[in-house]
Amino acid sequence: MSGRHPSEIGEQTSRGETGEQLAGANGQFGRALRDLRANVRPEELGLPAARRRTPGIRREELAALAAVSPEYIKRLEQNRAHPSPQVIGSLVKALRLGQLQHERLSRLAGFMPTYGETVPHHLTAGAERFLARTSHTPVAVFDAAWTLIASNAVWQVLLGSHAEAPGGREINLIWRHFNGFSSCVADNDGHASPFEPAIVADLRAATIRYPSDQFVAALAADLVGISPRFAALWERQEDASYELSEKTIAHPVLGQVTLDCDVFTLQEADLRVVVFTAEPGSPGADKLEQVRKLSEPLNA
């Protein structure tokens, strides 16, 4: 039994169910694992990039990296075995996957994450304090599916208020971005590409974490049918992170305002916080000060 992962030994679960019995409910796990193995580049895992008959890496290579047997990998891919959380963790580490793919594999294997059934759409006390203490800086808070929850007065003066919007998709950033809604925000050259995969990855994560949220599921499904760009990014099923980017806002009074944009994640609350700032002494800082002055009546 040398070389086998401890969780691989024995096909019976504590409930007396066999791998074959479990496969019916979790048949997507095998396909997901096969796709991940086929889509990874060998050199990314430190394996030789020699000419191969099929894309990706071989079962034997994945087995060696994950410390399980090749036969066990085969059974997993054929949905004839049920992986434990420990085995999933080993596969994630072997394939160098991110948190999103880890959650996805766990969900497909039947392990429920410790999230609620629907996306939380309320401000935490910490997020409220953050908004209150950043009255000189444009700040907005979005939920895990990028629906706007709250924004401060400086944000509303800079980017407009959505208080009159009926809610739902009208105030969802992903829907607006990929559905052709006019926006006063333009990504400068080189920054649109990282932003789009990141918000699509966030929406995918929301569908995994909150499987009963019908709004999120319908939003993703409709965007796949409406936007070819979204559909292509959705199909890629990759993790992506946010990077500091420079954005230009077309303001009706101040003209073009170029600022730095940061995105922060409040992990426990599963919220996204967007902050616009400017280098001190820059033209953007001057414009931002003018925006702050325009927002003073709203803070009074």
Any idea what the radius of gyration is?
Answer: 23 Å
Q: Uncertain runs with pLDDT below 50, 5 residues or more?
A: 6-26
Strand order of the largest sheet: 2-1-6-5-4-3
Count of folded domains: 2
In CATH's first tier, which class of the largest domain applies? Answer: Alpha Beta
End-to-end CA span: 72 Å
**Number of helical elements:** 13
Could you spell the SSE succession in H and E letters? HHHHHHHEEHHEHHHEEEH
- Say how many strands there are: 6
Helix content: 40-55%
Corresponding CATH architecture of the largest domain: 2-Layer Sandwich
What is the overall pLDDT average? 82
Q: What name is given to the CATH topology of the largest domain?
A: Beta-Lactamase
Strand content: 5-15%
- Structural class assignment: alpha+beta
Largest sheet: 6 strands, antiparallel
Q: Tell me the overall shape.
A: elongated
Describe the protein in words.
The protein has 2 domains: 6-108, lambda repressor-like DNA-binding domains (434 Repressor (Amino-terminal Domain)), CATH 1.10.260; 125-299, Beta-Lactamase (2-Layer Sandwich). The termini are far apart. It contains 13 helices and 6 strands. A hairpin with a 3-residue loop joins strand 4 (245-251) and strand 5. The longest helix is centred in the last third of the chain and has 18 residues, at 192-209. The protein has a 6-stranded antiparallel β-sheet with strand order 2-1-6-5-4-3, sandwiched between helices. It is an alpha+beta fold. The protein is 44% helix and 12% strand.
